[in-house]
Amino acid sequence: MQFHGKCHCGNISYSYDVPGDDDHLSVRICDCSFCQKHGGIYTSQADGALNAAIEDDGAVVRYRFGTETADFYICSRCGVMPFAISDIDGAAFAIVNINSLDDLRPDRILPTPVSFQGENLEDRLARRKRYWVGQVSIES
């Protein structure tokens, strides 16, 4: 199944591919202060693929906080954060903010509240390697 998304102004666009024909997505609602304030609701599948294109890289902010192990891509023109990328052992892993998807029916998501408070760095990176999108391509 392929989904398409972008920031509001279209500077950051992407396709998110997941195996199979089922358009149900497992969705996590993070309780950290950034995600709560930014409205981030995320999905990822380890065997999925994120293919992104950035029209004007100068208009993209890569925000890091907390452990500073992930770049949250934020369009400085419209303020939307479509995805985040974590570089682990030389490989990129991603999560997709479902609020930036253009073709997702709300009745097809299964939200689960999550909390990663107190998670140590080693466990956090291991979790990302297991569950975040494992095939990431960004074209600028």
Plain-language structure description:
By secondary structure, the protein is mostly beta strands. It has one domain: Metal Binding Protein, Guanine Nucleotide Exchange Factor, Chain A. Helices cover about 10% and strands about 40% of the residues. It has 2 helices and 11 strands. It has helices at about 35-40, 120-130, and strands at about 1-5, 10-15, 25-30, 40-45, 50-55, 60-65, 70-75, 85-90, 90-95, 110-115, 135-140. The protein has a 7-stranded mixed sheet, covered by helices on one side. It has a 4-stranded mixed sheet with strand order 1-2-5-11, with no helix packed on it. The two termini are about 25 Å apart.
Provide a count of the helices.
Answer: 2
User: Which architecture per CATH?
Assistant: Beta Complex
Overall CATH class: Mainly Beta
Question: According to CATH, what is the topology?
Answer: Metal Binding Protein, Guanine Nucleotide Exchange Factor, Chain A
Biggest sheet descriptor: 7 strands, mixed
Q: Identify the overall geometry.
A: globular
Overall tally of structural domains: 1
In the sheet with the most strands, the strands line up as 6-7-8-9-4-3-10
The fraction of residues assigned to DSSP E strands is 35-45%
Output the helix-strand order: EEEHEEEEEEEHE
Judged by helices, strands and strand pairing, the structural class is mainly beta
Helix content: 10-25%
